[in-house]
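Subgroup meeting minutes
Present: P.N., E.W., G.H.
Scribe: E.W.

1. P.N. recapped why we're keeping a running log of single-chain structure predictions: easier to compare across weeks, and new members can see raw inputs and outputs side by side.
2. G.H. added today's entry (344 aa).
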Amino acid sequence: MVQERTLPKFDIASVQITKAEGLMLYEDMVLGRSFEDKCAEMYYRGKMFGFVHLYNGQEAVSTGVIRAMRQGEDFVSSTYRDHVHALSAGVPAREVMAELFGKATGCSKGRGGSMHMFSAEHGLLGGYAFVAEGIPVASGAAFQSKYRREVLGDPNADQVTACFFGDGAANNGQFFETLNMAALWKLPIIFVVENNKWAIGMAHERATSQPEIYKKASVFNMVGVEVDGMDVLAVRSVAQEAVARARAGEGPTLIEALTYRFRGHSLADPDELRTKAEKEFWFARDPIKNLAAYLLEQNLASEAELKAIDQKIQEVIEEAVKFAESSPEPDPSELYRFIFAEDE
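Output recorded in log:
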């Protein structure tokens, strides 16, 4: 079994959350989990092709960070595990599902598929298949926000960018080079490391000389934070602080969220490298079950309300599948469209 780091403690008593906020967080995580479960079903039924990387277990990170931002105004850069980031950013489930089906109604018009979700309307900068590829792209988005505000004098240019990547990317040169520039220029960006302990089949502790990634922020004179990535309230708390810091012009933050994927690296992965004991350790920390228990304990929700959300999401997912199945394939006449910029 891979050695487990002690999950950072979070003062739950310090949380001030309304019923509406609690139900919003719960619904967003249930949407992500249910969507991914349906993706697995559709993949094995031959409705999806290529590599499909699911997000099960990591929902607290996507929800905690993205839902602490302004939907449709701030920017989100993802990885090849991008479906749930897209959903949290506000991309409709039907458009994400249609994209996975390769249909013209998908958020990338059927051209991106599982690993390349994109939506300009929702500030989703894209999913990136190459490890660490999205880090400099996200920093470019953060730079233009700062430039527009400080050089062009646009008072509305206070957007914050969240850049998601895995623990494997933290050993990549783009990580170090870009964090250095972001710190020097005080870019309004949050670097979010989703440390799910495995880079495909490589255990994180075997691949890096400093397993505690958040400590790498110190060499850039940047704020580095470690958080329990299975606790959406903890993630949301550190994300809110990082967003406020970035929007105030105080520079970037590196957040390391300790999380775990409940499925293999992709749906083609037999997942034989991880031990049963390790999986059970993390399954017991299911972020959705934990939030549901908290909401019930704090009288912020009833069993009936949570079940109603579960049912609502199932209907959303089923509608998304029907929409995707009935949507048209991209027209062959548009094969070369979107390769080059077009005149408006």
